[in-house]
Design goal:
61% of the residues lie in helices and 6% in strands. The chain is built from 41 helices and 14 strands. The strands form 4 sheets. The protein has a 5-stranded parallel β-sheet with strand order 8-9-10-7-11, with helices on both faces. A 3-stranded antiparallel β-sheet has the order 1-2-3, with no helix packed on it. It has a 3-stranded antiparallel β-sheet with strand order 4-6-5. Strand 1 and strand 2 form a beta hairpin. The N and C termini lie far apart (73 Å).
Length: 917
């Protein structure tokens, strides 16, 4: 006989001791057991239990009632020690396999691993369903259980959909019809159930009934939601109308759904009312499913939302989005357009498809998330205008926003609900500190109470303080409080009511315990212009030249909760911590030291960006720096270079704009002399990468700043090259007249300078623009001049670009033999340089040449190579061009179907790029 204790919550709550069922009498006793099981093996604070059970705060009477209730519950357990007092609360110990809801989920998880073994999948799900008796926790009426009940119920429905899909794959079409029909009746808005019923009917030979079921599903969705069926149901109807066979594949999964929630907060206490309100707001089904959580800095807004989001994440099967809007960062808040671009890329939208204007991006975002059940967390918002474009347009999504601003505009206009988060109560603060410091807190009650008040009962301050105490086993809480007093800790508690600096003394205490190397790195993170940083850039900042040492220092900062580590070993500094680091740098390091740190950082970004751009297509050559870059990532391939540039692009653009700002700073700081010139070099190094990758917004910011600085310095070379890139950018955007004017101005500036390389580059660009303008003779002249200038200075590797355009122009003029010579020479050089973009470009010209000569075998060979090279280069502009030429080749071969297919692909790419100007 199995004498184990088992807890059953999938229905009326029961306890089984072996074969005996133990009744849980009394509403309060059932409620207490339910709360403890909900948080099994975790301490539940006494204040939380009092609030849930009696809606009362701690007092001698309620504490005594709770103790009596706990005593009575222990009496029905197999071992009274299962329910133990633990750090200011109570913990119920539950072993593996003793809780039926946990066993239920485990069986379903195992079933999901057998998507290709339908029979085993069916067996596991049927076994799990055998544990389900009725609504979970039936008879227990507690708001705190609502989300868990919904989670389990949703898990059951999803599993039933998976079950019947597996049954269909086993060929049991007719046997599941009755069960699925009953489920459809209970859940008429779940399209997946309609899909399964229609499939089962059709595969059972009941085509008319299947079509009737589709009509019923459509009517229900239109009547109830005002929405047409989704694409899967519509596709299923078409297959049935066309008499196609339908294969029952595995049910759709959310494996590709974004799951961006940060790591769950450990030791979270209190906030019972706020969590319950979020539960209600997320499930009430009204149109305005928007909640703003507002409060001062460090009060725990983000922690609250992350804690809640992890609890309910399964209620949002299409994913959870999370973005830090940097609303109160020392730098500018994230622009709504930039945030939308990030969210759209996360949702699978190619960067080249993202429109240029904010309204278009917002509309595309609303379209992408329409119908999806998603949780969208917008953290650290600055104001309503920043957030408004990021709101979904569908009630299927729930948006949670945190901000220090009240966001009154969203409440008034969008009907958002607002939760105002105050500092924790003294009891909640004590519970948090007890969890963080354990018995040390109980051993020093007076010092603990003083620490709580000096930290203003802010969770962030308490956590940082506790970490400093916990990191040193002999460091008493009273000593820590004394240290805070010695450092004028009142500034932390009340400095002109400024919440941004309310934790300064806590940061100071944390900082003081750092090793010198980590402390220096921490200070230098303040002036760093990016949102995050990797170990290579951090090494450049501090100038120690040792990557291993930098990583060790970063790890120390992570342990001290001063820096957060994210994916791919990148490190993010919270805005409050960054402000403190900047203050430290200003007061600890001299202006010369800070300027040298930025110089090293700019050298690192410039040199690495130049090396990466050279691997992609070094049409303007490599930019060299005066400083030595001791360590940098190994970028040996085109793919590695492109990935690095895509990752660091935002930081480099901000570094360049900082360089421009330093140049125009008045009065000029002599320690910063030289920093203002980097924007020119960044413009030159990134010019072709930004152009080929169609990063037009970033290109405009960079080259505009570079042109302004170069003009102010009266530097004709830098000014001419920046104008050249701006001209190319304007041409991309369709402003050809203005583009040609700027390019001619650029050529004029460069003629003033004795620099053949830049003159050659501009002559080639001017020739291309003349060609587009129909001025063929002038175009040929300038392209030939570009080739001649490059050759005269020994830059043969750069001649492939003007040679390719020259070949295309000769072809237009009716000189195919001359064109072929130019193009083959260009291809040979591009292959020598291993330049995938240039190879794709030249191969397009050769495909066109051989098509006109009716040499379609050669044309097809070059066209296919062009597409392959463009795709390997991951450059949509060239892929569209290559597909266009390949379509023309297939048209010449008489294969209209393939020609049309490639023409359609071309149209999609070019339309998306046009929309994303």
């Amino acid at each position: 006989m199995d004498a184990r204790l088992r807890f059953a919550v999938l229905g009326p709550m029961r306890i089984h001791r072996g074969d005996e069922t133990v009744a849980v009498h009394g509403e309060l006793r059932r409620n207490l057991l339910a709360v403890l099981l909900l948080r099994a093996n975790s301490p539940v604070p006494t204040d939380t239990l009092l609030e849930i059970l009696w809606r009362e705060r701690r007092n001698p009477n309620t504490l005594q009632r709770l103790q009596v209730l706990v005593h009575r519950l222990r009496g029905i357990l197999d071992d009274p020690n299962r329910l133990s007092a633990d750090t200011g609360g109570y913990r119920l110990r539950v072993l593996d396999g003793e809780l039926d809801s946990e066993q239920f989920c485990t069986l379903l998880d195992r079933a999901s691993e057998y998507t290709h073994d339908a029979q085993r999948c069916v067996e596991l799900i049927r076994e799990a369903m055998g544990l389900w008796r009725a609504t979970p926790y039936e008879g227990v009426d507690l708001p705190d259980l609502t989300v868990e009940i919904q989670r389990l119920s949703e898990r059951r429905l999803t599993a039933l959909e998976q079950l019947y899909a597996a049954e269909l794959r086993c060929g049991r079409h007719a046997t599941v019809i009755e069960e699925v029909s009953e489920l459809v009746g209970k859940h008429p808005l779940r399209e997946r159930l309609h899909d399964l019923l229609i499939t089962a009917l059709y595969q059972s030979g009941r085509r008319a009934d299947a079509l009737a079921a589709y009509r019923d599903a459509r009517k229900t969705l239109v009547d109830e939601l005002g929405l047409e069926p989704g694409p899967e149901l519509r596709r299923l109807e078409k297959q049935i109308l066309d008499g196609e066979s339908i294969t029952s594949g595995p049910p759709p999964t959310s494996a590709s759904a974004p799951m961006q929630l940060p790591h769950n907060v450990s030791g979270f206490v209190g906030r019972v009312a706020e969590l319950a309100r979020l539960d209600r707001l997320s499930t009430d089904g009204e149109a305005a499913r928007i909640c703003v959580i507002v409060g001062s800095g460090g009060v725990g807004k983000t922690a609250l939302v992350i804690r809640w989001a992890h609890r309910v994440m399964e209620s949002f099967p299409d994913g959870q989005l999370f973005i830090d809007l940097q609303g109160y960062s020392p730098d500018q808040p994230v622009a709504a357009g930039d945030a939308l671009a990030t969210l759209l890329r996360t949702l699978g939208v190619d960067g080249s498809v993202i429109p240029a204007t904010l309204p278009e991006r917002a509309a595309l975002f609303r379209t992408v998330v329409a119908r999806k059940r998603m949780l969208i967390v917008l953290d650290n918002a600055h104001g309503a205008d920043q957030v408004r474009p990021l709101l979904s347009g569908t009630p299927s999504c729930f948006v949670a926003i945190t901000s220090r601003d009240t966001l009154a505009g969203l409440v008034v206009r969008e009907g958002a609900h607002r939760i105002e988060l105050d500092p924790m109560t003294a009891d909640e603060s004590h519970s948090l500190l007890s969890q963080l410091l354990g018995v040390r807190c109980d051993a020093e009650p007076e010092a603990s109470a003083e620490l709580i008040e000096r930290c203003a009962r802010l969770p962030l301050a308490l956590r940082i303080a506790a970490e400093r105490v916990r990191a040193h086993s002999h460091y008493r809480i009273s000593e820590f409080v004394a240290d805070l007093t010695a450092e004028q800790a009142l500034d932390m508690l009340d400095i002109d009511g400024d919440p941004q600096t309310s934790v300064r003394a806590v940061f100071a205490s944390s900082y003081r315990h750092l090793e010198p190397g980590a402390a220096h790195l921490f200070r230098m993170l303040g002036p760093h212009p990016g949102y995050d940083i990797d170990a290579y850039a951090a090494t450049a900042l501090v100038g120690n030249g040792e990557l291993r040492t930098t990583r060790r220092n970063l790890e120390q900062l992570v342990r001290a909760n001063l820096v957060e580590e994210s994916a791919n070993r990148r490190y993010h500094v919270h805005d409050l911590v960054r402000a403190y680091a900047t203050e430290l740098a200003d007061t600890t390091d001299t202006a010369t030291e800070r300027a040298r740190a930025l110089t090293r950082l700019f050298d690192y970004y410039l040199q690495t960006a130049s090396n990466a751009a050279r691997l992609i297509d070094a049409l303007d050559g490599t930019v060299r720096t005066d400083g030595r870059v001791p360590v940098s990532p190994t970028l040996a391939t085109h793919a590695a270079a492109l990935e690095w540039l895509d990752t660091e692009r935002g930081t480099i653009i901000r570094a360049a704009t900082l360089s421009a700002a330093i140049h125009f700073r008045h009065p000029a700081d002599p320690d910063e002399s030289g920093l203002g010139s980097y924007v020119d070099s960044f413009s030159k190094a990134l010019g072709w990468y930004l152009d080929l990758g169609w990063h037009l917004d970033d290109a405009w910011v960079l080259h505009t700043a570079a042109a302004a600085v170069a003009k102010d310095r009266d530097d004709p070379i830098a000014h001419g090259m920046a104008l050249r890139h701006l001209a190319m950018l304007k041409a991309r955007k369709g402003d050809r007249a203005e583009a040609l004017h700027d390019m001619e101005c650029a050529a004029g500036l460069l003629e003033r300078a004795d620099d053949a390389a830049t003159q050659a580059a501009c002559a080639g660009s001017l020739g291309v623009m003349y060609g587009h303008d129909g001025r063929t003779e002038e175009a040929v002249h300038h392209l030939r001049r570009s080739v001649d200038l490059y050759r005269s200075i020994g830059y043969r590797s750069r001649t492939h670009w003007p040679l390719a355009h020259l070949g295309n122009l000769h072809l237009q003029q009716g000189h195919p033999d001359v064109a072929e010579t130019c193009l083959h020479e260009a291809l040979a050089i591009a292959e020598e340089c291993a330049s995938l973009p240039s190879q794709a470009h030249v191969l397009c010209g050769l495909a066109s040449l051989y098509s006109e000569r009716k040499q379609f075998d050669d044309a097809l060979r070059h066209g296919l190579r062009a597409v392959a090279s463009a795709r390997a280069a991951r450059i949509k502009l060239l892929e569209g061009l290559a597909l266009y030429h390949l379509a023309a080749v297939y048209r010449g071969l008489g294969d209209d179907e393939l020609a049309q297919r490639h023409q359609d692909e071309t149209l999609v790419i070019f339309q998306s790029m046009h929309n994303g100007r």
